[in-house]
Amino acid sequence: MDRLYNIWLLFFLLPLLCACSGAKGQHEQYAAFHPGALWLDNESVHINAHGGGILYHEGVYYWFGEHKIAGRGGNSAQVGVQVYSSDDLYNWTNRGVALAVVETEGHDIERGSVIERPKVVYNAQTGKFVMWFHLELKGRGYEAARSAVAVADEVTGPYTFVESLRPNAGIWPENLDTAFRNTDVDVAAYEWWTPRWEKAITEGLLVRRDFEGGQMARDMTVFVDDDGKAYHVYSSEENLTLHIAELSDDYLSHTGRYIRIFPGGHNEAPALFKHAGRYYLIASGCTGWDPNAARSAVANSIWGPWEMLGNPAQGEGADLTFESQSTYVLPVAGKEGAFIFMGDRWRPRNPIDGRYVWLPIVFEEGQPVIRWHDSWDLTVFDK
Ligand code: DGJ
């Protein structure tokens, strides 16, 4: 009798129990976004694509982001850039490592370097997929402040590392007054954040310091305009000032045309998008992994002038952008004027547990507005 019971348990009861308990691979399909909650992939594992961006290609969304691991060291790159795919934006399939860290000691993207905010774009002229990201060299904290580029023939990779650099070495920003286009500056002579320092920042103090070696480039995004031209937007000058720099036709380098926007504005986490012929920017302040109030800006031309619009977040929690920091604004395919704010809720003590805050953007009086929703779906854009 005992034996019969054991056999029954093994063959009938156990599989039934596993199926009902939501074991790996068994979670229900999502039909909505749940900002801030665990977000399980097709294998029932929390999505690991932080500081991410999305490429929509041939009817499929590809979400690229920083792969993080558990524990305090989890923000350094141990694996690389992870990619997921989806055709409905709610349910994501893990497509593996798009760009892998390298084991060779001294390599720019060796294991233990910092790889942040990867953004992938497709170049129709070359047929290549191009990934830009913020790179910090292993063991040097955040002092390298470089951008890096990698390229692939297939959207999910593997991406081949091309180079890392500080952009626009030896080139002046288009909107820096010619009177200040010299490297005759002694940064140490200015005391941090005094009126004199602020004036010096406006006059390009740090651009001039970094003129020869190239401009610092940390938090970043890439934006492709309707005419196929791509732009690299990055926090430069010790995170004090954003730069918008044009990329070459193959998207693999900078053309040398660039501007500074909001000098001394302390803007990080830039996300750029275009709506009704105008360019919008959402960014954050600079408080490390802690959230702060977002800010937005608008321009009729990517080359400016850019006008500040204030915090796009509204309602309870808006002062901390609902505990998140922008990473990308996603235009929803096939829905005119539908944009999703994508933010990260960082967990620096256990980075793998970082959460995603995706919220709909609405336009009110020409300004982007983001409000909290416990859960929502794409039909909000139909109203
Ligand atoms: C804020 C940035 O937005 C993040 O991408 C990351 O670089 C952290 N700072 C590091 O403190």
What would you note in describing this structure?
8% of the residues lie in helices and 38% in strands. The longest helix has 19 residues, at 2-20. It has 383 residues and is mainly beta. The radius of gyration is 22 Å and the shape is globular. The strands form five sheets. The protein has a five-stranded mixed β-sheet, with no helix packed on it. Strands 1-2-3-4 form a four-stranded antiparallel β-sheet, with no helix packed on it. It has a four-stranded antiparallel β-sheet with strand order 5-6-7-8, with no helix packed on it. A hairpin with a 7-residue loop joins strand 15 (295-299) and strand 16. The protein contains three helices and 21 strands. The N and C termini lie far apart (63 Å). The chain has a domain at 33-165: Glycosyl hydrolase domain, family 43 (Tachylectin-2, Chain A, 5 Propeller), CATH 2.115.10. (2R,3S,4R,5S)-2-(hydroxymethyl)piperidine-3,4,5-triol is lined by residues 51, 116-117, 219, 268-269, 288-289, 325.
